[in-house]
Design brief:
alpha/beta; Rossmann fold; 47% helix
Amino acid sequence: MSGDCQDKVALVTGGASGIGRASALALAREGAAVMVADLDHDGCETTARLIHNAGGTAAVHGVNVAEEDSVERLVRETVNTFGRLDLAFNNAGIGGAMGKTADYPSEDWHRVLAVNLTGVWYCMKHEIRHMLELGGGAIVNTASIAGLIGMSGAPAYVAAKHGVIGLTKNAALEYAKQNIRVNAVCPGGVRTGMTESADKAIPGFLDKLARLEPMGRVAEPEEIASAVVWLLSGGASFMTGHALAVDGGYVAR
């Protein structure tokens, strides 16, 4: 797949760390110029520096995906900086609070939905407009295995990730004849800053995640990034509207 994204422009939200950073680096290795976007400016700068040090091309832009004006500015700046937008990985997201449905705090519900679901819609809305002008493109949205099954104690996260898969399928149908492919990636347990923070707060959290996986381990961010890059590449040219589980076999049971 080497060089499959040559001369393409890619936008990655949540690019300051974890799956977003790994995907930004992987896209750059494949020849794409990458706009790295996140609320974490320092993290974005680090990702961009890693790309530059490896001989790639990158720029950074701050974004709050829960605010449409912020997303619109991001997409516009990507096009202004690089002249086009071919590929987008809508990855920014949060974990949110834990709690049963009847006890879940309303403010946490609205925050998780605003970032994890509405934020993905805002991104697609403005990315697709530019891709239509260009004559096509490819989008990958980060869902989760929680978008494929239920997970007790995470009603907002599960609802949001199911919604991301629904949005993905809907947009895929709407724009298939206009050469815009839209897919979702559904990670299982992944070693990221978010899960490592959870492990510090709840000792043994990562070990518990690993035990839940049929492979007996959690994924590294680079393993999810490989799937993302493939979905965005010409190798997946006849794939759209698909939610790809990259989960060590979790949902196969």
